[in-house]
Structures are given as structure tokens and as C-alpha cells.
Amino acid sequence: MNLNTLIEQRSSTSHYDASKPLADSQITELMRLATLAPSAYHFQNWKLIAVRSSTAKARLKDIAMGQTQVESAAVTFIICGTLMPHQQLTTALRPSLDAGALPQEIADSWVTSANASYADNPQLQRDEAIRSASLAAMTLILAAEGMGLSTGTIGGFDTPAMIEAFALNAEEIPVILVTAGYAAEKRPQKPRRPLSEVVELV
Ligand SMILES: Cc1cc2nc3c(=O)[nH]c(=O)nc-3n(C[C@H](O)[C@H](O)[C@H](O)COP(=O)(O)O)c2cc1C
């Protein structure tokens, strides 16, 4: 399907056909595509957890305010953003250097600049974690829809409970959940606010 059409037809699903699972290879492919999202300095400051076993789904449903789509969806991805991105930037850029996709002097300047900007700025680290995780989440949604799956987004969850249940460390912030699977019921996309209220050409 053409990407514009896919965007025009996407809507959030909260009722899935629980009898239709996804293969782990499909789940992994969705996460691979999500990690092709852009991130500042190519930090790739994210972590994705695929919740697809019935025990893990039950745990996640409790944390997500009892929202039943977490159980009926084939998989729910916990998309985390990570703090202290400057500390792992040299490692994150290594494959780009090896592939000749990034000149050494640019990589060096990014590391210097990122250290100067992020090291003493926890607010910026958090903003960046949320930006990166959000872009990864939207990329995953479009990839899943492109595979003929339905998706939904969940922001309603208990963050401390999530951190504990999925053993996230102090640098991993759960930002958003994305459910994916085969819809039991498909709703039309809701109309949006008038363009004139939300856009500006300058
Ligand atoms: C950050 C965020 C948090 C959301 N949280 C929830 C949620 O907890 N439960 C839910 O059913 N839908 C949730 N949604 C889905 C929105 O209600 C939905 O995207 C919105 O109504 C627009 O509908 P559409 O996605 O079908 O276009 C969330 C969406 C976003 C982007």
C-alpha cells in the first residue's frame, strides 16, 4: 500500500483476534525496522521489549490499567528511551565508521558536542529519550501497518510498576506501549482538528 494511503487509513485498534499470534521472526523484524528510526547524533538511545507470552501479557495488563488489548494483541512492545546517551556514543557510531557511512572527524565532533550538551543536563537526556522512543514507536507502527497488521498506542501505565516488572534499569524510561496483531474489529480513523488551527506557513 502507498504510504500516504496507509497513513490516511491507520487507526488505533483496541480489539484484537487473540487466536492469531505472530511468529517471533515477525516480531523481531518489526523491532529491527523500528530501530531504523532517526535519533539525535545517531544515539539510538532506545530499548524495545516484546511482550508476547501469556504470563508477561497478564503482568503488563495489570500495569496498563487493565487495558485488555494488551492480552488480546499478538504482541505489545514496551518502547523505552535511555538516559546518558553520550556515554555510549563512541560505541554507537562504530558501525557507521566501519561502513564508511560517517567520516571520523564528524564522529569525533559529535562525541565532543554530545558530551558538552548532555553530560550535565538530565532534562535534555530525558527529552532526547522521549523523542527517540517516540520516533521508534511511530516507525514500528507504520512498519506493522505496512505488514497488514493493526496497531494501537498506550500511554496509560504505571511507570514504577513497569520498571519493576520488566527489570528496567535506572537509565531506561518506559515511554510508550505499541500493541500489534490482527484486529477483531477495525474502526475508521477519527477526523482531525482543522488544519488551519494546527499548521502555520512562515
Ligand atoms: C501518547 C499516546 C497515548 C495513548 N494512550 C492510550 C491508552 O492508554 N489507551 C488507549 O486505548 N489508547 C491510547 N492512545 C490512542 C489514542 O486515543 C488515539 O491515538 C487517538 O484517539 C487517535 O485515534 P487514532 O489513533 O485511531 O487515529 C494513545 C495515543 C498516544 C499517541
Automatic annotation (TrEMBL):
InterPro entries in UniProt: Nitroreductase, Nitroreductase-like
Pfam families: Nitroreductase
Organism domain of life: Bacteria
Keyword Oxidoreductase: yes
Domain Nitroreductase: 7-182
Keywords: Oxidoreductase
Family, as annotated: Belongs to the nitroreductase family.
Name of this protein: Nitroreductase family protein
